[in-house]
Every structure is written in C-alpha cells, then in structure tokens.
C-alpha cells in the first residue's frame, strides 16, 4: 500500500482542542492500522478517530507553534503534509476560569511621554507647546543638551567653512529680528486664570469637606479607613483561599475528565457492542474488540481489567449468536446467502482460534443437501399415495415441453420431485463446490497444514462430492427408473414388464425429466474441478450412466406409448371414404398413422436425441441401441397392422350405414396396400432424415406383413363371395322344380339358376370395382373358377339322372356360361375353358352334337339369351388391356 498523503486540514489554525478534519489518501485501512498522528510535533493519536482511508478526525494539541501534520500507518508508513497548522493562544477573559495570575498593570496602558503647557505670546495670545519628557538626541536643536558640533557633523559635514559662516550670519540675523517671549508671573496668571480658579474652588471644597468630616468623625480620620482596609484584606484573603480550593477541585475534575475522555472507547465498548449487534454491524464489533484487546488486555489497572472482562463476556455471547446464525445460514443456502456465510466464517475464524468454521460450513451444507433431498422424497411418497386415489389428467405435449410451468398443477408427483430436487441440488451443490474450492485453495481463512489439506481434499472428493452426485442419481432412478436392474430394454410392446412400469400419464413427461437431468449435468460440467485437482470424468460417471439409461428408457416408453396409441386407431375409424386413382378407396386411417409416427419422431428428436451435452456421443452409434430402435419402430408399425385388422369390426355411424362388412374388408385391404406402398416408404425417408439407423430391413419385414394381411383379407373376402355365389346354384336349380333333371319339355330359355348366378357375379364384381378396381381381375378369376367348378360338380352329380330334355337344357346353360365367361378375355377364358369343356362332356352325348335340330335349338336359345342379357354380359369385360390394373394385380 502507498504511503499516506495529507491534502487538506480544516481549520488551518485554532486554539488547543480545536476539532480538526484531516483529508488525504491512504490514511490507513482501519483504526488499528493507524499508528501515529502528530500535529506541530505533538502526538494526537488518543484524540484521533479513523473514518475512511481518506478522512481522519482529531483535536489540536496544547501549544503555540506552527507545524505540519504527520500520519503514520502500519500498512503504508509515514506521510507528511505540505500544509502547516498554526496553533493559537487561547484568550482568557474576565469570566474565563484560569489557574495563573494576570498582571493587571498592563491591562489599561496610557501614553505619558508628553504633557501640554500653555505659553502666552507677545500679542496677548497664547499657544500650547508640547514638552518632551524624555531627552532628545544631542543634534536636536531644540534640546537642552544641544551640541553644535554634533549637529554640524551629522547635518553639514560636506559644507565648507565659508558656507557655514554665511549660514551662521543668516541665522543670527533672523534670531535678532524675532521678538523675545517673557514668562513672568502676571502674564502666566492671566493666561491660566480659569484653571487657577478651578483649582482654588476645588481646594476650598476639599477643605470644607475635610472640616465637616472632622467635626463628624473626630480628629483621627484614618482609623475607620484602616479598619475597612484590614477587613477588605481579610475578605480578599478568604476569597483567594476559596478560589484556590475551587481551582484544585477543578484541576482534579479536569484530570478525571481527561482520563474518561482518553479512555472513553473502553468504557463505552460494552454498550457499543450491544448496539452494533442490534444493528448487525459485526465488523465494527470485531474491530473494536481487537483494538481494546491490543490496548488493555495486559493492563494492570483494575478498572481497565474489570471493563475488559465485561467486554470479553459480551464477545462470548456474540460468538454464540454468530454460531447460531452460521448454522441457519448453512442450512438455508437456497436463499443465495453464500456471501453472508463467508462473512460469518471470517468472524468466527477471527474470534475462535482453535476452530475451523469453513470446514464446518462445508459439512453442514452437505448434510443440509442430504436432508432436503430426503424431505423431497418423503413429500413425493405422500403425494404419490394421494395421486393413486385420484389421478390428474394427462398433460398435453405443449405443457410438458414448457419448462417454465414449474407450478403446473397437472404435473405428476414424479415431475414435481425431479424439478424440486434438481433446483435444490444445483444451488446447494454449487455452493458446496465453491466453498470447498475456496477452503482447499487457502482463500477462506484456512489454518490447516499441507497434510491436513491433502487429507481433507480426499474427504471432500469421496465423501462429499461423489456421495452427493450418487445420492442425486439414486433418487432419480428410484423415481424415474423403478426396478431398473430388472428392466430389459430389448422387449416387445407386449412385454408385461414395460407395461407395469409405465404410467400412461407420466410417459409424456419423461422428455421433460430427461431435459432436467441433462441441464443438471451441464451445470456440473461448468464447474472447474481442476481448481482442486480433481478429475471430473470419474466423478460424473454415475450421472452420465443415469442419463444414458433414462434416454433409452424414454425412447422405449415413448415408442411403446405411441404403439398403444396406434393400436387404438381402429376406434377412430369413421369410414370417411376417399377415392384414389392408384390404390382405390381408402380412409384417413393410414394418414393418421403417418401423422402419429412423425409426431413421435419429432418429439424424440427434439426432446430426447438433441437434448445432450457436448461430450455425449450419438446414441444411434451404439449397436445395442440400434437393435432396440429397430425393434421399437417395428413394434410401432405392427401396432398399426393390428389396428387395421381390428378396424373392420368397428361399428358404423348413421351416415355410413350403406357400407357393408364386405365393403369394409375391401377398404381395409386398400388401407393395407396404401400403407405398404406409400406410407412406409415415406416413413423410411423420414427415418433417414432424422438420422435413425438403416430401417431397410424393418420396412421390408413390415411391408411383407402388410402384404400378408392384405392377402388374408382378400382370401377371406373371396371365400365369402365365392360361398355366396356358388352356395345358391343348386338351390336355385330346385327352386321351380325338384325333379328338373327329369324334364321332358325341350328348353326355351336359359335356366333361372344361370341367370341368377350371372347376376350374383355381376353384383360381386360391381362391389369390388366400386371399392378397389385393381382387384377385380384377381378376385373374379377365383370366383368364376369356383363357379364353374361348382357347375362341374352338379353336372357330375346329375349326369346319369338327366332326361333328354334336361340334358339339352344343361347344354344350353353350359353354352350360356361359356359365352358369358368368354367376355372376360382370352386369359380368363383359357383358364376356364377346360372346366367348361369337362361340364359339356359330362352332360352331352354324341347324338346330341350330331343332331342338327338339337344343335340349332341350342344355338337359338343361346342367342336369345345373349340378346336379352347383352347388358349383363358386357359387365364381364374386365378390360385386361389396362396396364395399371395388370401391374397392380401382379
């Protein structure tokens, strides 16, 4: 610190004990740093009061000198002012108490060097001439002791003798010409007649008064005067003795007051300590105590020892108060009062020599952290019991993604616990770390040796920091990852372990909890552990492992939750039909599935994958995570497969009552085709966009499952329609005549069952074409094949019982079927023709074929049938040249 520098004194002069204000720079750090204050060479430290490093207040000394102000401090040395202080004498008046005698002769000085004399002139006037009472110099021409030689030497030493003679003659002539004044008695009386008369009157009055007094008091007039003088003398001596006694008392009182004034700091210290404690001016208390300790701790004066003992008792009470405040402050650091705690540590370190309050504070903060986290856990358990009885509604995505809604009443107890615990840990652990760094680096009034610091550094790392982080991770795991050791991430969506551990209302809050844990970990990374020579890699390993497990758990729960949501999509199927030129009729269900998948992928990307610190690696780079993600996505897609399969049984609304069960099967079939051909490839692109592992195999497997479901639904539909068509053929044969096979009348028209079968086939075709035109070819081929097989079976069954007319009727019916099926196209006809020929062979005889009459009859009836049902027959033209239909069929 620089030496003191005095720049101003106010006032610059004054009598003793004048209050002085000294201003300057570097005038000391505190009162104890001030060693000396000298004014005019006299020490004034006892009167000095240190205010600030730029201001000191003191009193001027008792002297009559002028001198500089010299300031001496322990930290800066000695500094002398350039300004002088002038000490004035204290004026003493008539009423000013004084302990010295005053010479009263010089109080009323007068000038008696001259007197006046009235001298009469020749013309009768008079003039006053001042007569000097002291002798003048000898060269004074008017002096009685005038010496001409001296006059000439001093005034005319450079004049010649001729000049002197000439001057002498001039002066002589002038003297002869002046009239001479005579001072006789008559002239004097005339000139002073008034004064002389006044004197005579005064003498006469004095004589008369003397004569009167003599007659009244006797001839001896001085007796009473002598008595009065003696009485006055005695009274004067009595007054003098009284004054001397009072002076002694005043001196004693003055000395006592000087002692009290000089040591008033000590006598007022007990009360000042109480006042400062009430004002919480703890620095003042400690500074005053150490100042008094330095001055009076070894004093042999009983009064000082007694007062200082009382001061020490007050300080002991003060230490107890500081200890109580110290504990309260260490246990309530969440109020951001770490600076207050450091002040208390400083005070206790100064007052208690054998204590280590800084280390005590570190242990108290650690214990406070553990206790408060335990309180949070108890509150969580209590709130969980209440929540189990009445669960709150599930939060929306917007609410759970908003971290500012700390007091949201919809938050589950787990989230409230994570919020409160994380904030508590951030504050207390940061304070614990900063306080520990300051202590171990010797910045916090540390009195330990190097060995003690090394031992406490190990304790601080292992027992304080590591245990605190492990406690936080364990509490996180107990709440967010229950029974984590038994939990297997590589599970399917139907695994009961995952369902048991996953609360549907809580799943959507897992990203928020993950973000909170990552934020806590980021705050720990900001701490400079190198300050205390600790490697943070091993220290932060537990929370790194927990974040990784929580990230995978969140991924699993979100995908599983979304899979369950997708499974329930069939309940939202309202059969809002949309027409597609490529895929036929479909509903919004595949697009809803696509939307939900995109939502969960965006949520996972924003809230799980991208929420990480700089030192964390991408979880998709790990092989086990890749397998888990693929399985979860496959389960998600399979959930929609389940929803599609269940959607066919979903009840219809009033406006969709015209949609039959078979229509719904075809619509579901179209949804499967649309999902496999359009939605899944689009999802594959989204997976690549978001950086997911290669999903080629997953998409291929799920596409195959959708194709399998499509084939399953199609086979079921074909089976139902085939049964509807062929199930009524034999019944229709017997509808008009049970013994139709014994008919004797030649046929005039195609049989009713043939027409009914054709109409049934047209109805099936129209139903398929209305929903999914691309399936007409494949579906109708199997139904037509089943129809001709059924007719073949009936021909086989009745061929031996047929009459000739019935046989011809059967040939007409077979020809009609052949003509109708020929309209389906060459490819269809080639597959159906062998069955038709077989039917004809079973019924026909060689004579029937060779008989022209029968042949003509068959042709005529067949032609009339074709003419009358040409519109129905045209429905079997499946337009096989349409390339799109052929491709979709394949």
Automatic annotation (TrEMBL):
| Ranges of compositional bias, category Low complexity | 398-409
Judging by the UniProt lineage, the source's domain of life is: Eukaryota
| Keywords linked to the UniProt accession | Exocytosis, Protein transport, Transport
Q: Name one Pfam family in it.
A: Sec5
Which Gene Ontology terms of cellular component type are present? exocyst
Q: Which organism is it from?
A: Dermatophagoides pteronyssinus
What is the role of this chain? Component of the exocyst complex involved in the docking of exocytic vesicles with fusion sites on the plasma membrane.
The name under which this protein is listed is: Exocyst complex component 2
């Amino acid at each position: 610190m620089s030496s003191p520098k005095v720049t101003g004194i106010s006032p610059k002069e004054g009598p003793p004990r004048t209050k002085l204000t000294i201003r300057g720079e570097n005038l000391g750090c505190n009162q104890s740093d001030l060693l000396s204050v000298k004014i005019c060479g006299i020490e004034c430290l006892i009167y000095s009061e240190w205010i600030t490093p730029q201001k000191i207040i003191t009193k001027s000394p008792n002297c009559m000198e002028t001198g500089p102000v010299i300031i001496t401090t322990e930290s800066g040395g000695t500094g002398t002012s350039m300004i002088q202080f002038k000490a004035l004498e204290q004026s003493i008046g008539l009423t000013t108490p004084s302990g010295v005698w005053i010479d009263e002769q010089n109080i009323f000085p007068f000038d008696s060097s001259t007197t006046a004399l009235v001298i009469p002139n020749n013309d009768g006037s008079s003039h006053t001439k001042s007569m000097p009472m002291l002798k003048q110099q000898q060269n004074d021409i008017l002096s009685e002791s005038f010496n001409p030689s001296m006059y000439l030497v001093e005034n005319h030493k450079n004049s010649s003798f001729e000049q002197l003679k000439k001057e002498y003659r001039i002066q002589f002539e002038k003297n002869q010409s002046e009239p001479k004044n005579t001072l006789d008695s008559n002239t004097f009386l005339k000139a002073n007649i008034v004064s002389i008369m006044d004197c005579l009157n005064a003498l006469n009055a004095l004589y008369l008064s003397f004569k009167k007094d003599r007659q009244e008091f006797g001839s001896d007039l001085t007796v009473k005067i002598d008595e009065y003088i003696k009485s006055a003398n005695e009274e004067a001596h009595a007054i003098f003795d009284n004054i001397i006694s009072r002076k002694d008392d005043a001196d004693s009182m003055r000395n006592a007051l000087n002692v009290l004034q000089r040591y008033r700091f000590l006598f007022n210290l007990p009360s000042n300590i109480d006042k400062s404690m009430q004002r919480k001016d703890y620095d003042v208390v400690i500074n005053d105590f150490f100042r008094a300790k330095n001055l009076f701790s070894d004093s042999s004066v009983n009064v000082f020892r007694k007062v200082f003992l009382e001061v020490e008792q007050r300080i002991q009470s003060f230490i107890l108060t500081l200890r109580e405040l110290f504990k309260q402050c260490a246990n309530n650091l969440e109020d951001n009062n770490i600076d207050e705690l450091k002040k208390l540590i400083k005070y206790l370190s100064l007052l208690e020599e054998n204590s280590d309050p800084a280390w005590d504070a570190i242990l108290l903060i650690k214990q406070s952290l553990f206790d408060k986290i335990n309180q949070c856990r108890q509150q969580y358990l209590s709130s969980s019991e209440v929540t189990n009885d009445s669960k709150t509604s599930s939060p929306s995505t917007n609410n759970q993604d908003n971290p500012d809604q700390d007091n949201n009443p919809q938050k589950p107890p787990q989230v409230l616990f994570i919020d409160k615990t994380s904030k508590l840990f951030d504050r207390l652990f940061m304070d614990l770390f900063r306080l520990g760094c300051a202590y171990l680096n010797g910045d916090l009034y540390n009195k330990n040796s190097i060995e003690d610091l090394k031992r406490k550094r190990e304790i601080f790392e292992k027992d304080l920091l590591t245990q605190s982080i492990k406690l936080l991770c364990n509490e996180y795991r107990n709440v967010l990852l229950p029974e984590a050791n038994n939990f297997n991430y590589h599970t399917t969506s139907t695994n009961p372990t995952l369902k048991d551990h996953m609360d549907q209302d809580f799943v959507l809050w897992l990203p928020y909890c993950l973000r909170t844990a990552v934020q806590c970990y980021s705050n720990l990374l900001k701490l400079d552990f190198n300050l205390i020579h600790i490697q943070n890699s091993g220290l932060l390993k537990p929370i790194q492992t927990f974040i990784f497990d929580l990230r995978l758990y969140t991924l699993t729960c979100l995908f599983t939750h979304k899979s369950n949501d997708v499974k329930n999509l069939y309940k939202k199927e309202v059969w809002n039909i949309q027409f597609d030129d490529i895929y036929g009729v479909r509903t919004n269900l595949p697009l809803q599935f696509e939307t939900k998948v995109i939502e969960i992928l965006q949520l996972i990307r924003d809230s799980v994958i991208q929420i990480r610190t700089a030192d964390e690696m991408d979880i998709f780079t790990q092989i086990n995570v890749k397998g888990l993600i693929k399985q979860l996505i496959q389960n998600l897609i399979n959930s929609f497969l389940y929803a599609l399969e269940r959607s066919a049984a979903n009840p219809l609304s009033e406006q969709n009552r015209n949609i039959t069960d078979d229509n719904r099967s075809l619509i579901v079939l179209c949804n499967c085709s649309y999902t496999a051909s359009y939605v899944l490839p689009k999802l594959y692109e989204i997976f690549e966009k978001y950086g997911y592992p290669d999903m080629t195999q997953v998409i291929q497997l799920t596409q195959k499952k959708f194709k399998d479901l499509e084939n399953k639904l199609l086979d079921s539909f074909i089976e139902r329609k085939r049964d509807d068509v062929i199930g009524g053929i034999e019944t229709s044969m017997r509808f008009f005549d049970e013994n139709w096979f014994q008919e004797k009348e030649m046929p005039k028209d195609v049989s009713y069952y043939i027409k009914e079968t054709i109409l049934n086939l047209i109805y099936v075709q129209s139903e398929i074409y209305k929903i999914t035109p691309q399936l007409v070819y494949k579906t109708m081929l199997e139904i037509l094949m089943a129809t001709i097989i059924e007719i073949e079976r009936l021909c086989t069954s009745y061929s031996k019982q047929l009459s000739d007319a019935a046989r011809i009727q059967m040939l007409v019916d077979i020809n009609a079927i052949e003509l109708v099926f020929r309209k389906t196209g060459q490819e269809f006809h080639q597959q159906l023709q062998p069955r038709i020929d077989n039917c004809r062979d079973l019924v026909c005889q060689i004579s029937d074929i060779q008989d022209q009459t029968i042949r003509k009859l068959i042709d005529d009836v067949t032609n009339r049938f074709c003419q009358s049902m040409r519109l129905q027959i045209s429905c079997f033209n499946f337009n096989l040249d349409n390339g799109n239909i052929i491709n979709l069929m394949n």
